[in-house]
Design goal:
With 273 residues, the chain is α/β, with parallel strands linked by helices. It is built from twelve helices and 14 strands. Strand 10 and strand 11 form a beta hairpin.
Length: 273
């Protein structure tokens, strides 16, 4: 099979545990782009928090793409054009806030390039550190959100969020897409908007067939794109659910798992790093 596009989750997939791209993986991704293939960064992160990696991998030079907010936005890095966008209206955000109060967990969203919450908590602080975005604490969350937002997150430890995720997937079925990107991040986007549906849109937009797409990830929010892609890849550090759905299990994010996928399925002119 001749693969023409490789799609990468960022945290714990493309990025090592110290949140960097290894030299070998970077070389491999620059090489496949130079040979005409597309690279897509597909993350739950806000677009703002993906540009550093996009610049390091020269996505603009090669006409590659950012798929951010779990698929709620797609950016052509070469033109900076947003070719797909999905948002949640303020009344939906208000309803999610009510649910967070009922479930006694924190919530945050994004306004511009800021993270907004009314409940200071360590998990929002982690998001601020991961994204480099400032965290703004407001007194009234509902009043702070006056325009549509791309995504909301509810936050708590993994043991707390697991049953809430299951409960809300049933309660909000057909109304919102619900998935965890990390054990402590439960994410909400418009119904029907996932990494998988947005990847399908992007592949059709650029004229690449489903069978020619590789998608790599480690978490539950990666499942839709791993199942949709012609070759779905689980990282060696992925959870057991993701590994069970994947066509191929590569090495971990700390062992150049992405470079291993490229070497195995796309060929490469790599030299040892």
């Amino acid at each position: 099979m001749s693969y023409k596009m490789i799609v990468l989750d960022m945290d714990d997939t493309l990025l090592t545990s110290d949140h960097t791209i290894s030299a070998k993986t970077k070389t491999a991704l620059l090489d496949v782009q130079a040979r005409g293939h597309k690279v897509v960064l597909a993350s739950g992160r806000p677009t703002y928090a993906m540009w550093d990696a996009a610049r390091e991998l020269e996505l603009a030079k090669y006409g590659s793409y950012i798929l951010s907010f779990n698929g709620a936005s797609i950016i052509n890095c070469e033109t900076n054009e947003e070719i797909f966008s999905s948002t949640l209206p303020p009344e939906t955000v208000a309803h999610l806030h009510d649910i967070s109060v009922r479930e006694e967990i924190a919530i945050h969203t994004y306004i511009g390039n800021e993270i907004v919450t009314d409940q200071p908590n360590p998990y929002t602080d982690i998001e601020g550190e991961l994204t480099g975005m400032p965290v703004i604490h407001v007194d009234d969350f509902k009043k702070a959100v006056t325009t549509p937002v791309v995504k909301c997150l509810m936050l708590g430890d993994g043991d707390t969020l697991a049953p809430i995720e299951t409960k809300l997937q049933v309660e909000l079925e057909g109304k919102l897409a619900v998935a965890r990107s990390k054990p402590f991040f439960l994410e909400f986007t418009e119904a029907g908007v996932t990494k998988g549906t947005s990847l399908a849109f992007l592949a059709e937009h650029v004229g690449i067939e489903q069978a020619h797409v590789i998608a790599c990830g480690d978490g539950n929010n990666d499942l839709t794109m791993i199942e949709w892609a012609g070759l779905g890849v689980a990282m060696g550090n992925a959870n057991t659910t993701v590994k069970g759905k994947a066509d191929f299990i590569t090495k971990s994010n700390n062992e150049d798992g992405i470079a291993h996928v490229i070497e195995t399925f796309m060929g490469t002119a790599l030299v040892d790093q």
